[in-house]
Amino acid sequence: METATQGTVPTQPTAYPKTDRTVPTRAADRASYDRDLVHSILDEAYVCHLAFVRDGAPVVLPTLFGRVGEVLYLHGSTGSRPLRMSGQTDPGLRVCVTVTHVDGLVLARSAFHHSINYRSVVVHGIAHQVTDPEEKRIALDALVDHVVPGRSADSRPANRKELAATAVIRLDLDEVSAKTRTGDANDDPEDMGLPHWAGVVPVRKGYDTPIANGDLAADVAVPPYLKTR
């Protein structure tokens, strides 16, 4: 059998390790550390929320992101506070990143047991600003393709001025957990006979017909990767 020292890439574990920060104190049975599940939840989201501490107070910012293997890349302006803070010192910036999908509205017979069916991911770690030009190019392509796969090859890449005005931070997927809820409402036995409708209202994500810019030339067709969405 060939070993890693002979040139093969070590196989990634199928699950992320549990830590004190990734084990929830409530509904721990809904938590998962499955690597494929985490990746699928991240890849389906358009926006993540980036949390950090500024001047002793918590701050949460929505931002675009992209995943390349076991790394998240987050986009921002070179003037934004978290991007500046992540590049100030070698230790980087301690952050927490989350994404959430709402899959259904759970309506119970009692107000207390109303809920939602959801899929979420929480990532803890140290973010660092990307300074290597090649890694930055890969990261920016990933950010564009995360929103619309294939789009980075079908658009003008950033020029030198735009690259100078754009910052990217890197967060390794080391301390990660997913959490999900599925199924019906959990009504109390004594409420089962109440005359109130109970069930799940599914929530779907969809796309409408692409609308071209008013200044787009008439002979520029809608690209195939948009027709399949």
> Largest sheet, described in full?
6 strands, antiparallel, barrel
Q: What integer value in Å does the Rg equal?
A: 21 Å
Number of helices: 5
- Terminal CA distance: 43 Å
CATH architecture: Roll
Q: Give the helices and strands as they follow along the chain.
A: EHEEEHEEHHEEEH
**Mean pLDDT across residues:** 88
Oligomer: single chain
Number of domains: 1
Instruction: Tell me the β content.
Output: 25-35%
- The name CATH uses for the topology is Pnp Oxidase, Chain A
Helical coverage, percent range: 10-25%
Q: Give the strand order of the largest sheet, numbering strands 1, 2, ... along the chain.
A: 2-3-4-7-6-5
Shape call? globular
Q: State the CATH class.
A: Mainly Beta
Uncertain stretches = 1-7
- Which structural category do the helix and sheet elements fall into? alpha+beta
* CATH homology superfamily name: Electron Transport, Fmn-binding Protein, Chain A
Number-wise, the strands total 9
Descriptive report:
18% of the residues lie in helices and 34% in strands. The chain is of the alpha+beta class. It has one domain (12-183, 222-227): Roll (Pnp Oxidase, Chain A), CATH 2.30.110. A 6-stranded antiparallel β-barrel has the order 2-3-4-7-6-5.
Summarize the structure.
The chain has helices at residues 35-44, 81-86, 133-147, 160-165, 224-227, and strands at residues 31-32, 47-54, 57-68, 71-77, 93-107, 115-129, 166-172, 175-181, 199-202.
